[in-house]
């Protein structure tokens, strides 16, 4: 099937091609607004202070490299069961299953950024701040870290960070368009009617040498 033939088929089924994507987009959009709760993200920035910061600075580059490794270890601690459970206990929660965490760190600094996402903005900010507090105590206990100092505390988010409803609606629209094209093409392939001279030649394997025109209102 050529592109021109496909466009001709789509034009014949234009109503389906237009209506089905709109229906899919409305269905996905309605689901995202009704069934999916808003999520909020709170972030807290931390600076890792290691013990040799207070010593001499003769080997600054090697100290910085070692400090960055310690920073990566602190990032790992933030996701440890101990920090998670102690945070939940301090906030009176059974666990933090309703929250997702994301930790980013630069390779050229000792600053960590912790992002916590949940459905309650106030509680989400509380979880982020408490995790930063708990990881500082654990890091001092199990690593050569003086402290993990909070640079910017998590503030209560005022607007939702998700779900990305416009993206879902766009995906639903594209999925509906793809489904409409697939239905048109499959329906055309399953249609065995002879619709013209070309179909007749292909079916019989002989050329058409003439045809009788349809006549209306006469004998």
From TrEMBL:
It is a multi-pass membrane protein. The chain crosses the membrane at residues 16-36, 167-187. It is found in: Cell membrane. Residues 2-90 form the Polysaccharide chain length determinant N-terminal domain. The keyword GTP-binding does not apply. Residues 142-186 form the Tyrosine-protein kinase G-rich domain. Its main location: membrane. The keyword Protein biosynthesis does not apply. InterPro entries: Bact_polysacc_biosynth/exp, GNVR, LPS_length_determ_N. Keywords: Cell membrane, Membrane, Transmembrane, Transmembrane helix. Belongs to the CpsC/CapA family. This is Wzz/FepE/Etk N-terminal domain-containing protein. The lineage of its organism: Bacteria, Bacillati, Actinomycetota, Coriobacteriia, Coriobacteriales.
